[in-house]
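If your schedule permits, I should be very grateful for your opinion on a structural question. What I wish to show you is a protein chain and, alongside it, a tokenised description of its three-dimensional fold. Would you kindly read the sequence against the tokens and tell me how you understand this chain to fold? Here, with my thanks, is the record as I have it:

===
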Amino acid sequence: MICPFCGATNREDKPQFCSSCGKTLAQVPAVPQPPAGLLAPGQEEVYFDGRPAAIGSVGALLVTILTVGLAAIYLWIRTLGKHYRITSQRVVVQSGVFGKRMDQIDLYRVVDFAVERSFGQRIMGTGTLVLEAMDKTTPELRIEGIRADVNQLYERLRAAAEVEKQRRGVRIMDVERP
């Protein structure tokens, strides 16, 4: 059992006291176990690491064909300016070709997830993941044009966010306005 106070691993399944910090564990509710496919709390698993697709939709493909490939060069250079790293604890977005900016959102701050896949994106095998967070600098993060199973990534991120919220003791409260 992992102690929720100090994080130490106890050898017994249901110990009375933590062998490291000595706090009482008998009345502490069990720490939620991560769903299948997730690592133990504190460990980070990479779900996606890469750039958006250069030609992410049928519209971009048509423009590339009409401009005899010149649009593909522009689209490729534009994708060099974005890099996404999505893990079980955070989402990191690096943007910029020459000057770099890095934005990071911890998953326990994410309040809502959405998947957007237009018809053109579905044909090209890409999608957009939209995250709404309790973050002052980045209240909405759009992870656009990634070539991955966006629905599976969405489900894994939702589960990982719930585990992170429980691990950190974060509770989201909805306040309705009249």
